[in-house]
Amino acid sequence: MMMTRGTSRVARLTMGGRLFSAVKGAAAEGEKFPVMGVRWRSSLTLGEKEQVNNKNSEDGGNKEVVASYWGIKGEEVKKEDGTPWKWNCFRPWETYQADLTIDLKKHHVPTTFLDKLAYWTVKSLRFPTDVFFQRRYGCRAMMLETVAAVPGMVGGMLLHCKSLRRFEHSGGWIKTLLDEAENERMHLMTFMEVSRPRWYERALVFTVQGVFFNAYFLAYLASPKLAHRVVGYLEEEAIHSYTEFLKELDKGTIENVPAPAIAIDYWRLPADSTLRDVVMVVRADEAHHRDVN
């Protein structure tokens, strides 16, 4: 028995050594290799992808870069007109037209203690945001969306786990909250096309998101009602921020540049849409999230 175990251990070590050598060689050549600890070509940065493409071009090799996080090429998707679909972060069936007729002035008046706690917590968070970003609404929107996409994911995750524990249905709330998180993430993907965050703003995202995620997680465990109230008031503030954004665009303080292609496809906007049209549909989305929460 001891000899068998020793022999098996030696075999495993030998195979492990060979595997490590193979992985090391593949990594050195920039190849894809499905082993933990080695990045696939799809997870390389843009600069690294360009280097790989240049190397492949020089060598006459395959120029294709797999556009998937896992290194697996997804199925080919096309638009209704037959042209290739170029976005990997969302699919044609996830696109929609925002409801611009939604009531933007609706306000939930805080009556209970939890309502007032949520309301004044959000109000206190607005002051440092105003001081930091001033009227740089593009970067302000970017920062806002990195935080706004957290609650839906946290709430959906906790309800998902609760459904598993209790062997019961969720009433559709898991899907609703996860869709909300995805929609907020698409807001971020859009504003990343029109804003150029500075290095300290990117660093701030790490800090703010880390603190907010854990704080919201604990708040949701303690009181889901309080957590949703916080999100509702956050969305009210988002509506106000995007309204100010529109005022700056109308005054010409911020250039009304053409809408990013990703926004045109996601919200099914006309081809000649501008940044103002994008802010309009994003504000409508925030109003919808306000009503849900």
From TrEMBL:
Q: Which reaction does it catalyse?
A: 2 a ubiquinol + O2 = 2 a ubiquinone + 2 H2O
What cofactor does this one take?
Fe cation
Q: Subcellular location, in the record's words?
A: Mitochondrion inner membrane
Instruction: Spell out the Pfam families in the cross-references.
Output: AOX
Transferase recorded as keyword:
no
Question: How does the protein associate with the membrane?
Answer: Multi-pass membrane protein
Q: What class of enzyme is it?
A: oxidoreductase
**Domain of life of the source:** Eukaryota
Q: Which GO terms describe its molecular function?
A: alternative oxidase activity; metal ion binding; superoxide-generating NADPH oxidase activity; ubiquinol:oxygen oxidoreductase activity
What's any one GO cellular component for it? Answer: respiratory chain complex
User: Where would you say this protein principally sits, based on its record?
Assistant: mitochondrion
Tell me the CDD domains matching this sequence. Answer: AOX (cd01053)
The question of whether Cell membrane is a record keyword is answered with: no
Keywords (alphabetical) are: Electron transport, Iron, Membrane, Metal-binding, Mitochondrion, Mitochondrion inner membrane, Oxidoreductase, Respiratory chain, Transit peptide, Transmembrane, Transmembrane helix, Transport
Similarity comment: Belongs to the alternative oxidase family.
Query: What is the recorded name of this protein?
Result: Ubiquinol oxidase
- UniProt gene name: AOX1
